[in-house]
Amino acid sequence: CVIATAPRRRTRMPCALGVISVTLAACAGATPLRGAATAAEVASLFTSTGDAPTEQDVLDCVQRGWWESATHLVRLAHDRGLAVDEMSQVLSAATRSRDEASEVLSLLRYGGSVGAHAEETVVACAFQWAQSEGALHLNVKFSSRIDGPVTVLNVDNEKVRLSERRLDFSATGRQKPKQFTLQLDLHGEIVPESSSWSFASVGRMTFTIAKAVNETWPRLLKDQSARPTNMHHWVERQASLDAEAKKSPPAPKPAAEGKADAKSAGDAKPADGEAPAADEKAAASVKPATGSGDKQEL
Question: Where would I find the beta strands (DSSP E) of 80-230?
Fold first, then answer.
C-alpha cells in the first residue's frame, strides 16, 4: 500500500505547489485585475487603494465581459487624469465584441437562417452639405429620404474611407438587415488626416472634411451629372458658417502695396489733348458681377 500511494502523493505535489504559487501571485498583484476574482471586487479594489486604473485593467474587464466594471474603470481613469481616448487596445476589443454581438443579435432577430441575409438591401444615404473656406460639412441620414423617417436608429460595422478626392462610407443597420452607403467624388482635394466624423442625433452622422486649399467650391461633386437625387444644401449650417465668416476680420492689405496703388492712381493723367478713357461718373456706377466666382451649385 505504501508503494502504491507514494506515486500518487508525488503527482499531487506539483499541483498543490502550482495552486499556492498562483495564489501568492494574485496577492502580489501580478495576475490580471490585480487579483480581483469577480466583477464586484474590481470597484472596491481601486476605490480602497486610490490607484488609477491602467489600460490593461480596463482591457481585462472587457475581455472577461465585465462591462459594468469596465465602464466604472474608464470613468475612474478619466477622473484621475488619464487620457482614456488613447486606450486603443480597449477600443479595438470593445468594437470587436460589439460587432460579434451584433451579428448574433441579427441572426436571432431574423430567424438565424441564411435566407434572412438574402433580404438585405442597400440604401443610398440622403445627406445635406454646407461649406466654409476651409472645410466641408455633411449631415448624413440613415434613410434614402432627407424628409422621411430614419430607416434605422443605429448602425454597426461602420467603415469610413477618405482619400484625396473621395468619400466612401458603409454600415449595417442594427434594427433592420440593410446596408447603408455613401460614395462621393469631390470637386477638389481634401486632407483626410485633418478630417473627422461622428454619430450625431439618432439615425444620423456628421462629417467635417478639411479642404486642401482654403477656398469656396462652386459645387460639391466633381461631376455635376452624377449628383444624387437625395443630396441637398444644409441651409441652417450654411447660414451659421456664413455668419462666422463675416465676424472674422479680412486679411489686412500690405501697407506698401496700398501706398503704391494710391500714388499711381493719383499720378495718372491723360495726355495733352487726349480725352479721358471713360467718363468717371459712368465708371463709378459700374459694379462687379456678384456671385460669378462664388456661385454654388448643388
Answer: 121-124, 126-131, 135-141, 155-162, 166-173, 178-185, 196-199, 204-210
- The residue with cell 486642401 is 212
d(CA 103, CA 106): 5
CA dist 216 and 130 (Å) reads 11
Let me know how long the chain is.
298
pLDDT digits (tens, 9 = 90+) for 156-165: 999 999 999 9
For residue 31, give the C-alpha cell: 495576475
Cβ atoms of residues 146 and 127 within 8 Å: yes
pTM tops 0.70, yes or no: no
Residue keyed to cell 458603409: 170
Structure confidence by residue, pLDDT tens digits, 48-106: 777 788 898 889 888 888 888 888 889 888 888 888 888 889 988 888 887 777 767 66
Tell me the longest C-alpha to C-alpha distance in the chain.
140
Amino acid found at 8: R
